[in-house]
Amino acid sequence: xxxxxxxxxxxxxxxxxxxxxxxxxxxxxxxxxxxxxxxxxxxxxxxxxxxxxxxxxxxxxxxxxxxxxxxxxxxxxxxxxxxxxxxxxxxxxxxxxxxxxxxxxxxxxxxxxxxxxxxxxxxxxxxxxxxxxxxxxxxxxxxxxxxxxxxxxxxxxxxxxxxxxxxxxxxxxxxxxxxxxxxxxxxxxxxxxxxxxxxxxxxxx
Length: 205
Known about the structure:
- This protein is mainly α.
- It folds into two domains: 2-48, Orthogonal Bundle (Arc Repressor Mutant, subunit A), CATH 1.10.10; 63-194.
- It has eleven helices and no strands.
- It has helices at 2-18, 29-36, 40-46, 50-65, 74-90, 92-101, 114-126, 132-145, 148-157, 162-178, 182-188.
- Helix 1 crosses helix 2 (29-36), helix 6 crosses helix 9 and helix 7 crosses helix 8.
- It is elongated and about 55 Å long.
- The model is unreliable at 107-111 and 189-205 (pLDDT under 50).
């Protein structure tokens, strides 16, 4: 089992190296096998389809290159995501893999991602009056705005840089939090002028 885990990780590390010069679609299983020094059959055994490879590679890249700093408060969350977006800008090929992986759906029973659990924990403290359904809804929105997909959308669709994407993220978060019930949004410490701001602030006028 240990050898299998090491082989799987070696394949992902090699794929990340190849991403520096090739797109994901241009990286063949044969190239991965040659890079690692194993058979192509072994690569298929670890990752039966390219969807499995993409999902695993995205997770590995996020853990090794884009770990989200711990956060407890909304201010911490904003700072952590700003740091993540700057990292995305420094390694765009890796970030685009994460964005693409988020569009696929594998038939897997996966636990909620760490960031979702962390956001829900933040909301438990900062907006304790939220019911479970609303907390999960808000957490899903905040997770999207902190994602590689959101970054990629603004990077490719609007040609924004990291600083501009961070600003769009801040405005989107303010919009989401401003829609919370009065008691909950008050706990967030939102400024009065932030409440009721229009949605879709992440799009350039």
